[in-house]
Amino acid sequence: MRLLTQTIGVARRSFHCGRTLQDKKAASPSFHAEALSQQLGVSFKTPNILQRALTHKSFEHGTVPSNERLAYLGARVLQLSACENSLTSSSSSFKDHVSEQISLERLAKKFDGLNLTDGMQYHVPGPHMPPKIKATAVNAVIGAVYHDQGYAAAQEFVKKHVL
């Protein structure tokens, strides 16, 4: 009886989560990390760091860690770069200018502009990738550049591709 109750509980939770096998999105078979890194202008030294940057925590991935830590690191690098950029700007409100540069909507658009969709691995309900996942991936790519190449390379990447 206990096993049946546990099974029903799991079925109930997965029903309410709305996740099905069709919702799981792995990287496209045509995705090549080397080609994307060349397109981004970054030659990564750390193996699989770009794949990690494009793996959301919702993806049941086994051996590849999620992009959560890289995204946190990248968000801080982006904030610092946006602050430095805003100091030289003639914008009247420093805080508003920085907030605009690092907004979720802006980062989601940059995700689309950088063509990162083919490499993304995530598992969420619905046919479209939420903007928050896109923004997290952009932050994670910035974090990957910082982790692999240092602040100067990350700052250059941010200036070229994000700001």
Automatic annotation (TrEMBL):
GO molecular function terms listed in the Swiss-Prot or TrEMBL record: ribonuclease III activity; structural constituent of ribosome
InterPro entries to which the protein is assigned, alphabetical: Ribosomal_mL57, RNase_III_dom, RNase_III_sf
PROSITE patterns, per the entry: RNASE_3_2
Alphabetized CDD domains for the sequence: RIBOc
All residue ranges annotated as the RNase III domain in the record: 33-80
SUPFAM superfamilies: RNase III domain-like
Coiled-coil regions, chain positions: none
Signal peptide boundaries: none
Single GO cellular component term: mitochondrial large ribosomal subunit
Gene Ontology biological-process entries: mitochondrial translation; RNA processing
Superkingdom, natural source: Eukaryota
Name by which UniProt lists this protein: RNase III domain-containing protein
